[in-house]
Write a structure and sequence with these properties.
Layout: H1 2-10, E1 37-42, E2 46-51
Amino acid sequence: TLWLARKMVAVGRPLKKGDLVLSGALGPMVTVEPGAAYQCRISGLGSVHVNFSG
């Protein structure tokens, strides 16, 4: 986490009180194919959608 904190300062976006840092994977690694679409929902946090083109 110290590495991440330093890196965020270096790129001009230091971590702030209340920022959520997730260390490690939340699920298994998967192969991403062109045209694939993925969605992730985390209770109490929200969701994210991503589409890959190729």
